[in-house]
TrEMBL record:
Domain (Thioredoxin) ranges: 1-68
High-level lineage: Eukaryota, Sar, Stramenopiles, Ochrophyta, PX clade
SUPFAM superfamilies xref list: Thioredoxin-like
MF (Gene Ontology): protein-disulfide reductase activity
GO cellular component: cytoplasm
Name the UniProt record assigns to this protein: Putative thioredoxin
Pfam families for this protein: Thioredoxin (PF00085)
Amino acid sequence: MVSPVVDEVLSEYGNVMRVVEVSTDENPECVAECKVRSVPTLILFDKGKAEVTVVGAIPKNALVHALRKHLKAGV
């Protein structure tokens, strides 16, 4: 559901970020540690610290806006 939006953002900002998809079924420890309560949840980590959390499907412009201050290059 959010993959096309994430793919679009990654095509523009892939030089400054990478995307990792984690299965909630296969990684319950990660889900608990990151406090994921709903799917989809997107979490931006910067140096191992969760900086931005976006829950639910959102349009590309809203996702870019949420990530903007962390997308240092190419913005």
